[in-house]
Amino acid sequence: MRLDKLLTVTATATRSEAARAVRAGAVLVNGVPAKSAAVHIDPERDAVEYCGRAVMYRTHHYIILNKPIGYVSATEDGKDPTVLELLPPKYTALGLFPCGRLDKNTLGLMLLTDDGDLAHRLLSPRRHVTKRYYFRVKFPLTEAECARFREGLVLEDGYETKPADIALSSDMTSGVITLIEGKYHQIKRMMLALHNQITHLERISFGPLSLPSELARGAWRELTQEEENALREAAK
Q1: Are 129 and 207 in contact (CB under 8 A)?
Q2: Known catalytic residue: 80?
Q3: Which of 16, 91, 119, 208 is surrounded by the fewest CB atoms within 10 Å?
Q4: Which of 4, 46, 77, 103 is catalytic?
Q5: Cα Rg of the chain, angstroms
Q6: Which residues contact 27 (CB under 8 A, 6 or more apart)?
Q7: pTM for the whole thing?
Q8: From 3.10.580.10, 3.30.230.10, 3.10.150.10, 3.10.290.10, which CATH number describes the 3-54 domain?
């Protein structure tokens, strides 16, 4: 693998940044300054340092993002900004994509990755990987309506949803919903089937991942190794 490619696929630097760092003598291969960004290395065996920091080779990347309102869950869109635009260029060049979708006006936890196999398994209803959402609705819900919600509802297009849990707060207009599937606008459509309307929706967990309290709206970070391992376990 070329040295500059290693630095880009590890989200260490863009190709232009890598070339500048090599010219400045700031990239070491096995302790020796690299003479060219095009030099070929073995990412499994060679030790690479970029500006004094060890570069760790990874085949895939996993980003947790606290999605704000107004961004669409897509890799590109001709009208609205996408969640990928919240990341710096060295990450957007990796081929990341959203694992599942959140509506433009839905907030909260989003997983971005370039691991298509894991994303497919996490999103498969057969795996029963849960997604939890904090919600508010326009009108108070009754216990009878919550019971219908838990049994599964028939939507306006005839689709019958799988059973979904709902835990209602004391005000009867907010609470937490847990799904194992993720159809288009599913929660909003389920509430419409109960003649109600979602006024706020925020995903607070996805499988073993919970939205970190310290992660500000629009902020992101890479998953820890423990979080990656938990995701793989959930997708088995």
Answers
A1: yes
A2: no
A3: 16
A4: 103
A5: 22
A6: 3, 7, 18, 21, 33, 34, 37, 48, 49, 50, 51
A7: 0.83
A8: 3.10.290.10
